[in-house]
Specification:
Strand order of the largest sheet: 6-9-10-1-11
CATH topology of the largest domain: Rossmann fold
Shape: elongated
CATH class of the largest domain: Alpha Beta
Helix content: 55-70%
CATH architecture of the largest domain: 3-Layer(aba) Sandwich
Strand content: 5-15%
Order of helices and strands: EHHHEEEEHHEHHHHHHHHEEHEHEHE
Number of domains: 2
Length: about 550
């Protein structure tokens, strides 16, 4: 139990607020790779705490050092400096065990390796850190949803599975990528089969091929007259070429339809964004942070540019295909002119006209066959790709399914601690559960009423985190056994006393920032033995 408190005063009139207690937790988070803005910003006040900001970013170098100790991985020093006034480069800002790192990304990877035993990208250190450093009342009120409103169901799936021992997160990334690719293929299939379905095309091909075989077996023109035969062969050659051009034109028009569908989907996705609402939120936030409005303009420009680049890329492809289609149509028109000139010159005998009509009908059918075969081939390729992706999705599903048995056992171990502590606090047994919802593993808590008070949610979060530390020891998982909490003043005194007593006896570390007079019923002896930092209006953090 490590308490960060305000100092007791003789008068009892001084406030323990705004002396830097929460900032200590945010400094810990800074060493765990946060951006650091929260250190000199507070959502309850407009703009920056200028004194703190100038102290950290003045002409003298200021650094924060956090030491972490693990029985397996040993003791390590995590050190981060703040940029001095006018400093642009990041050199000299990140150190681990006195080894410098050139970027925040490389620093975060190594910190994750120290804390979790792997530098793997997913889930990221910054997705995991809010579970261990809850430096706001908002995070204390969201036991499982600690990533805030920006965490997607896929993000939470990876984080929660990882925290409870499912380490094959690569399969989760693969599944997300495969699902996106499958959605794209389904869209292309819808465009390819909009005019004719696959079964309809197959039956048309069978019918046309039978008619072609019959026509070829009873062809009227036998070539007895050399001039007519030569002319007929020329017409036949032209129509064979026209059939090939027609097949190519059919393929190009299919790709054009698919690209038009993709462009329409892109415009629909972006047009549904309520930019006015989003901007109003940023504008309101700008009252608290001067730079935020500038960041919104950059973000809006970036999003607009991203959309524009993607649409221009698709439009360039579409323009190229339209050019190809126009060229093929021009080729067809040219071949039709050549064919017409030959036919006009040879319209002298009725026999030839009859033969020519039969040849024309034959080559029209051949042209239809060529276009239908190209369409069918494209559809079959898309279906084969879909089946291949479905197979890989099934493989990933089976891997996750195989891991569920062990995951179920681990969650059960966690619940032995969680239900016991929650019952001691409120006489209610909370349970952590997980279910597969639409292909995503979703974790949730049961026995939580619809109108749970803020204090009860905070104590539930504290009970969850303490139980998790006990679970790690029992399950033999080498993850951090510390947690930082803030905003626990709303917890009832009886429950708070039970939580602090439990935390003080566990094989882990609870770092708690609180106001002294908000800890009723906690003895001065307990506070004295477990307080590691005391601050006051006359002795604030950083001395400012």
């Amino acid at each position: 139990m490590n308490l960060i408190l305000d100092k007791p005063t003789a008068s009892g009139t001084e406030s323990g607020n705004n002396v830097g207690k929460t900032t200590v937790l945010r400094l810990i988070d800074y060493c765990l790779g946060s951006d650091g803005d929260q250190i000199w910003q507070d959502a309850e006040f407009k703009g920056n705490n200028q004194d703190v900001y100038e102290f950290l970013h003045g002409t003298l170098s200021v650094y924060i050092e956090l030491k972490v100790s693990d029985p397996v991985r040993g003791t390590h020093s995590l050190r981060r400096s703040f940029k001095r006034a006018g400093q642009r480069k990041q050199a000299g800002l990140f150190y681990i065990d006195d080894v410098t790192y050139d970027s925040i990304g490389a620093y975060r990877d190594q910190v994750k390796n120290i804390l979790f035993g792997t530098p793997a990208k997913k889930p990221s250190l910054r997705q995991l850190a809010p579970k261990f450093v809850r430096s706001s009342s908002d995070q204390m009120s969201k036991t499982l949803k600690f990533l805030g409103d920006f965490g997607s169901s896929v993000d939470y799936e990876a984080v929660h599975l990882y925290l409870f021992g499912f380490f094959n997160v690569e399969v989760l990334e693969e599944r997300a990528a495969l699902a996106a690719k499958r959605k794209e293929i389904v869209r292309d299939l819808m465009a390819a089969t909009r005019a004719r379905k696959e079964g309809e095309i197959e039956q048309l091909l069978l019918h046309l091929r039978r008619e072609v075989d019959q026509a070829q077996s009873v062809m009227v023109l036998r070539g007895e007259v050399p001039e007519i035969s030569a002319a007929a062969n020329l017409v036949s050659d032209i129509r064979v070429r026209a059939a090939a051009v027609g097949a190519e034109l059919g393929r190009v028009e299919g790709e054009i339809a698919s690209l038009n569908s993709a462009i329409a989907t892109l415009r629909h996705d972006y047009d549904n964004i309520d930019y006015v609402a989003v901007k109003s939120i940023y504008t309101e936030a700008g009252k608290y942070h001067d730079k935020l409005q500038h960041d919104w303009e950059e973000l809006a420009t970036f999003v607009a540019n991203l959309r524009g680049r993607k649409e221009r890329f698709l439009q360039r492809q579409l323009d190229e295909l339209n050019g190809k289609a126009a060229a093929r149509q021009q080729d067809l028109a040219s071949l039709q002119v050549q064919e017409g000139d030959l036919i006009s010159a040879l319209r002298q005998t009725r026999a030839f006209e009859v033969a020519l009509e039969k040849r024309s009908d034959l080559h029209e059918k051949l042209k239809q066959i060529g276009g239908l075969e190209a369409s069918l081939s494209g559809i079959q390729t898309l279906r084969a790709n879909q089946e291949e992706i479905d197979g890989r999705l099934e493989t990933t599903r089976q891997i996750i399914e195989d891991g569920k048995s062990e995951l179920t056992q681990r969650v059960a171990v966690f619940n032995t601690f969680f239900t016991t502590l929650s019952k001691e606090l409120y006489g209610e047994e909370y349970l952590l559960t997980f279910d597969d919802k639409n292909g995503t593993i979703v974790f949730s808590l049961t026995a939580v009423g619809a109108n749970v008070g803020a204090g009860k949610k905070a104590s539930q979060t504290a009970a969850f985190d303490i139980s998790y530390i006990k679970f790690l020891s029992k399950a033999g998982i080498g993850f951090p056994t510390f947690v930082c909490h803030d905003g626990i003043e709303s917890i009832h005194g009886n429950q708070l006393r039970q939580l602090l007593t439990t935390a003080n006896s566990m094989d882990g570390q609870l770092i708690l920032a609180a106001i002294r007079d908000k800890l009723p019923g906690i003895s001065d002896t307990f506070l004295g033995e477990n307080t590691i930092v005391e601050l006051s209006q006359d002795d604030k953090l950083f001395g400012v």
